[in-house]
Amino acid sequence: MGLFRRGGNVRDTDEVTGAAAVTPADDAVAPVEPAGDDAATADDAVTGDEADVAGTTPPRPAPGGPWDVSEVDGLGRRVDLGAIWLPGVPGMELRMEIDKSSNQVTGVGVSLAGSALQVQAFAAPRTDGIWDEIRGEIAESVTKQGGAVDEVPGPFGRELLARLPVRTPEGRTGHRPARFIGHDGPRWFLRGVLTGAAAVDPAQATTLETLFADIVVVRGTEARAPRDLLALRLPGQMRPPAPAPAAAPAAPDFDPLTRGPEITEIR
């Protein structure tokens, strides 16, 4: 049995909608965690079946990952989180972020050895990727908030190196480094945010980059509007039935650098 705990802080932020929303955390060491506007904390500890995330660090896959579910031979040693199958790394801490207003799991966070990776999956058009467009929106948002951003080549193509403005515990304005990485798949887009040591030290980023490269995205066949957040679930939960066709939903609101409600599995 694994121990899950709920916790987190709520911060008021300027609303920035869409898959590129960026809001700095109130302190320089808060982990990367998204939250909805109506997010609230929960202090109760709950137990649940422990997902199998043990095993050796997965080797770097051949060029092309992250993967679509049609490209792999089953779950393997990954954890089934709904739209994301997440590889396990020994010693990692797995966080599932929940939007209180919809009771929807909105993101996955992995912490390991002083670094963190936040991952979210979105629907995308059938023909065109959206990472090029989202990079521009992220850069604009960071700049407007007083930060700085550079677009550079990386292991997954073009990525952003950002210095996000934050307020230190002493009340001063500081900057927090972050790397925004992305991958356009067939009708989906996977976005990752690296913080901590992995944002500035390539050697420290290797394990989390390898994890990101071996993620599998389960898009589903239902019609979705571009940038619609793909549904996630807690480890061990049953996959919900496919929803009935409905009007295209609005793009979700989330703040990728704001701490929110969470359920954490500690390894």
From TrEMBL:
Compositionally biased tracts (Low complexity): 16-45
Pfam families per the UniProt record, alphabetical: DUF3710
Tree of life domain: Bacteria
Chain positions covered by the region annotation Disordered: 1-70, 240-267
Stated name of the protein: DUF3710 domain-containing protein
